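Title: Comparing notes on inverse folding

I've been comparing how different people in this forum approach sequence design from structure. To keep things fair, I'm posting one structure and asking everyone to reply with a full sequence. Here's the target:
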């Protein structure tokens, strides 16, 4: 596998943090620190911050993503946001199937698949999250489970559309816990995901797809994780809320 054919993507996942005003302040802090980045830089922000974030990022190399969306176009889905609405405010990426959505909001592989298809057909780039719980890992079903999550989420996605998909491997036990997967564990599971892509779409697609690692990636462990051949960037939670730490990770991915 040739890592140099793939563009590294570092995406911040702000989760339920920041008001629009605070979002602009954080983006303004990040801007000068990442302006020379050769990798892609994305900030995924709460819905109410999207408009302000898009405006704050105009003319910079920082792109903006949402953290979720509904798969229907419109209708009686109180509290939900559609792909059209995200596009209308200039959103480019959308995190889909994050483990917190699966765990607390009942998302399943099937709804994640519907969301992936809806995002792609509306010109949004999904950051598709997959990953095992601690129990899954202890039961030694990590590889099978992550392969299955990936396959189901991508059902009916064409090879052309796959070019706009980023996959993030996020072991649930490593998210927000300070427990990071070892770089070998991350590389192994990212490799399993790449093999699934190879099986379904072929070698070329497998070499091209960006597969991130996420789960307590920070300014101290990013170099080691990002050095692995199958780790093409990161989805960063906690550390993305600190401009200097986020920039350190971005700059590590550009080496
Ligand atoms: P963390 O979150 O970096 O705070 O572990 C990662 C994520 O949930 O995307």
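Reply #1:
Here's my take.
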């Amino acid at each position: 596998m040739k890592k140099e054919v793939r563009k590294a993507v570092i995406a911040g996942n702000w989760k339920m943090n920041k008001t629009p005003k605070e979002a602009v302040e954080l983006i303004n802090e990040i801007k000068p620190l990442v302006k020379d980045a050769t990798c892609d830089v994305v900030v995924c922000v709460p819905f109410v911050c999207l408009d302000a974030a898009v405006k704050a990022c105009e003319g910079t190399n920082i792109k903006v993503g949402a953290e979720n969306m509904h798969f229907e176009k419109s209708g009686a889905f109180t509290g939900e946001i559609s792909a059209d609405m995200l596009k209308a405010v200039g959103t480019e990426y959308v995190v889909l199937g994050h483990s917190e959505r699966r765990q607390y909001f009942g998302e399943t592989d099937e709804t994640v698949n519907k969301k992936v298809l809806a995002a792609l057909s509306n010109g949004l780039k999904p950051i598709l999250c997959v990953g095992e719980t601690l129990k899954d890992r202890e039961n030694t079903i990590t590889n099978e489970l992550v392969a299955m999550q990936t396959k189901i989420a991508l059902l009916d996605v064409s090879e052309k559309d796959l070019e706009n998909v980023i996959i993030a491997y996020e072991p649930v036990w490593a998210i927000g816990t300070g427990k990071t997967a070892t770089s070998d564990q991350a590389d192994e599971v990212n490799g399993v995901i790449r093999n699934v892509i190879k099986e379904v779409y072929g070698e070329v697609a497998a070499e091209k797809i960006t597969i991130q690692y996420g789960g307590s990636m920070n300014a101290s462990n990013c170099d080691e994780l990002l050095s692995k051949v199958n780790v093409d960037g990161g989805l960063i939670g906690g550390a993305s809320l600190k401009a200097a730490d986020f920039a350190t990770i971005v700059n590590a991915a550009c080496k």
